Amino acid sequence: MKLVFVQPNYHAGGAEIAGNWPPGWVAYIGGALKHAGFTDITFVDAMTNHIDDESLRRRLAELRPDAVLATAITPMIYQAQRTLEIAREVNPAAHTILGGIHPTFMYQQVFSEAPWIDYIVRGEGEEIIVELMQHLRDGTAQATRQDIRGIAYVDKGNVVATAARPPIADLDALTPDWSLLEWDKYIYIPLNCRVAVPNFARGCPFTCRFCSQWKFWRKYRTRDPKKFVDEIETLVRQHNVGFFILADEEPTIHKKKFVALCEELIARNLPVHWGINTRVTDILRDEKELPLYRKAGLVHVSLGTEAAAQLKLDRFRKQTTLEQNKRAIRLIKEAGMVAEAQFIIGLENETKETIEETYKYSQDWQPDMANWNMYTPWPFAELFQELGDRVEVRDYAKYNFVTPIIQPDDMTRDEVLKGVLRNYARFYAKKAFLSYPWQKDPFKRRYLRGCLRAFAKTTATKKFYDLERLKFTGSGVEADFGFDEKRVFTRSQLRTLSEARPELAADVDFSGSVPVLGHAPPRPQEDEPVRAC
């Protein structure tokens, strides 16, 4: 079989400011399929190469695949659906398969909008995709697909979600093939080197209410440190990777293994630096080990500080305090690493004062870097359910961390955006003139100035935080958020919608279901579209 993987052409103005990121799913899913004997695999990175729909159509026509596979996080879902629609138009006989966190939980919504998709892979995909592709290759899928755990499909108008497949027990059995990627395209701007995003651990034992990664992976697991460093050595020696960021939600939870990983990197003396996202409490726990982490090449630690008010931390179920946040940042900096603080902005109780408060904490805590992320109400996260009809915008393309989705009680969305941009401008202006040029550590000074260049470059091109949406008027600056009005509802419409179309809700427990598309209750009138609920 000829397989084509496509990374959908989606852009948002968030993480891309630091460079182009290699899609790790291609290496892990592609490697699993190659290991199982599917060697004819082509990867089309429509995102990195900015391949528009018509160019993609021509490329797929040239490749003539037997199956097209794509992935989707929530803001990417519509472009992923369109990508597979093009694949179906080009070759009606080709199998179309979608994976990723959004279709895992929202498969019913996806099938209602994109009936041209044949299969959705739900959850961790390496084992599921191999079994599914074997049945498709052998022509037995139609008769046996109900027995393939971890997929969803439509059968005679009914959406069928099979039983969940257990999480992969042994992550060391993964066989990633990083040669599938276009390595000259993936450059990390701060260090001007190639970048990778490998997995050391999967899952998270914590249950933050705004997050859903812990639901997707379901169980926390880590790899053998030496085997993982084997993979890093392959990336460095064969693909000239100079920087990697662990894709893990919580790589430091298993302290013994994380320390062993660092010791192995030190022993091999690989010319590579790296970064992680982790918890404040792990940094406090590992105070004595932080110099070892820096010696192993760890140079950038992004902390989920999330909020500048204890009330919000408690609401998010972060299990940390403001003083812990401040101390963790200080410890990271003392160990010679870059400390980055993350703030979540844009809940219904946001005010000008609370946004200003986050700036004051950024000055008090003194992280090297700070990010202000718009709260994104994942439709499969617990906090989304609590907010209910406050989530009036269901245009998932805008669920991108840089667009205000929730309308606060005492602010407009424009005011939220302006407040965040003002925080960025003040924070990095001070860093540019009073901090970064005076760093004593030459490497850290070069790294931070590289980060500043990335910010400056994407600000000048209006890519940072999607600045292109700002419109200058006689009375000031206004933002055009570009919401699809068909996906914006009144609160009364949302209440009606949730009652009329319960089958389109998220399946957050991997329970599987067999609701019917063809026998759903009557749809609302045309002025009440049901594109997403």
SSE map:
Elements (H helix, E strand, L loop, with lengths): L2 E5 L16 H12 L5 E5 L7 H11 L3 E5 L5 H14 L4 E5 L1 H5 L1 H7 L5 E3 L4 H13 L2 H4 L6 E5 L2 E4 L25 E2 L4 E4 L4 E2 L10 H5 L3 E2 L2 H15 L1 E5 L9 H14 L4 E6 L1 H6 L4 H6 L2 E9 L3 H7 L5 H13 L3 E8 L6 H14 L3 E6 L7 H6 L25 H22 L7 H19 L9 E4 L2 E4 L11 H10 L33
Parallel strand pairs: 1-2, 1-3, 3-4, 4-5, 9-12, 12-13, 13-14, 14-15, 15-16
Antiparallel strand pairs: 5-6, 6-7, 8-9, 10-11, 17-18
Helix pairs in contact: 1-6, 2-3, 9-10, 15-17
Structure, described:
It contains 19 helices and 18 strands. Helix 1 crosses helix 6, helix 9 runs parallel beside helix 10 and helix 15 packs parallel to helix 17. The protein is globular. The two termini are 37 Å apart. By secondary structure, the chain is an alpha/beta fold. The relative contact order is 0.10. The strands form 4 sheets. The protein has a 7-stranded mixed beta sheet, with helices on both faces.
Short précis:
The chain is of the alpha/beta class. 38% of the residues lie in helices and 16% in strands. The radius of gyration is 23 Å and the shape is globular.
Percent of residues in β-strands: 15-25%
Major beta sheet, strand line-up: 2-1-3-4-5-6-7
Individual helix count? 19
| Largest sheet data | 7 strands, mixed
Coarse structural class:
alpha/beta
Radius of gyration: 23 Å
Q: How many DSSP E strands?
A: 18
Low-confidence stretches: 514-533
- Large-scale geometry: globular
Q: Distance between termini? A: 37 Å
The pLDDT mean sits at: 90
* Percent range of helical residues: 25-40%
